[in-house]
Specification:
It is found in: Secreted; Synapse. The chain is an alpha+beta fold. About 35% of the residues lie in helices and about 30% in strands. β20 (about 440-445) and β21 (about 450-455) form a beta hairpin. α2 runs antiparallel to α3 (about 140-155).
Amino acid sequence: MSPPLLKLGAVLSTMAMISNWMSQTLPSLVGLNTTRITTSDTLTQISPKEGWQVYSSAQDPDGRCICTVVAPEQNLCSRDAKSRQLRQLLEKVQNMSQSIEVLNLRTQRDFQYVLKMETQMKGLKAKFRQIEDDRKTLMTKHFQELKEKMDELLPLIPVLEQYKTDAKLITQFKEEIRNLSNVLTGIQEEIGAYDYEELHQRVLNLESRLRDCMKKLTCGKLMKITGPITVKISGTRFGAWMTDPLASEKNNRVWYMDSYTNNKIVREYKSIADFVSGAESRTYNLPFKWAGTNHVVYNGSLYFNKYQSNIIIKYSFDTGRVLAQRSLEYAGFHNVYPYTWGGFSDIDLMADEIGLWAVYATNQNAGNIVISQLNQDTLEVLKSWSTGYPKRSAGESFMICGTLYVTNSHLTGAKVYYSYSTKTSTYEYTDIPFHNQYFHISMLDYNARDRALYAWNNGHQVLFNVTLFHVIKTEDDT
């Protein structure tokens, strides 16, 4: 190959390297392969998790502040991380700008050679046309050699045109990088105007204070029920599913008990995701059949009503043994005082922020609901409260912060109609609707850890969110 063609081959090799570098390196440097950077007022939009919310506020007659705080999981300040990412991005842009500058110098130098080569090729093409017109006067051999050279050079013309286009593209990239670098520099200077170390400490201090406040806000009054969220569709029309409110944050085991009678099998899943997919981790065969659907898992043990009796059983999942059993004195059983839907739901076991409870009815209380607080180890009744609400007229019930909430039906249109406070031994009629999406609820229990209601709704396992009203007392309050 002649020297001009060798030099042209070197140019084409350079072009190939440039094209390869542009396709692989530029996207990763400027973030085109993951993130789109704009120059609008907000370069990065952060979607924080839901934070603390004030539900309502007022003053009592003595001038003390009374407010509501809805406190979901805490969210850490992420501004420092974003600032560090911005600095790293700026450094990458500056490094890229220097690389573009070097590449641009090489490109301009090779581009001048290409222009010169293009001129020579055009001159050669013109001469060839002139010679072709006079080919009759030339010897056949010389004409054929000249034609072969032209045939070799002709395919290079579109390549050179593409190279000119790539050179323009590199120039555009250089300009855009320069503009982006200026924007990032301006943003960095603006961020530097704030002392984020100090701000971060203030946020940490605030978070610590909010956590302390959270400990005081473990209890509140039910104000609203939203949902449901359908987790799974499985089993018969009646059943129970639950998690342990005293389990650690990493322990999200789910227990599943299908049907309201004639069953002893409890299925365990390691997480909600495994529950949805049906990946069982363990199966327990209880020593007794259960009655109803109103069981509860509390501190690693299952509490349930033994079939055809008013006996409460405490069963350990860890040891697979019965740890305690006790008869609930005078409690009706076997469909004597069930909820409106029946199903041997005479004795309802539940747990809240205060502890373990049993809700049932007795002849001594004329079939009205009795609330008993239980010792979780011995199942001994610590204290009882007699209400005036007929057990057979209740759709379902659940405890939150020592207050029993009763629904007026298990069918469509149900609402929380009645509440009884064990703290004050008083009751009130309420009107808190909730969406009974699948028309028949046979289990409704509150989980204090999740602050949610677990429900079995006509073969659907669903969750309801609850909104609680909290009264924050100052240190001056007595």
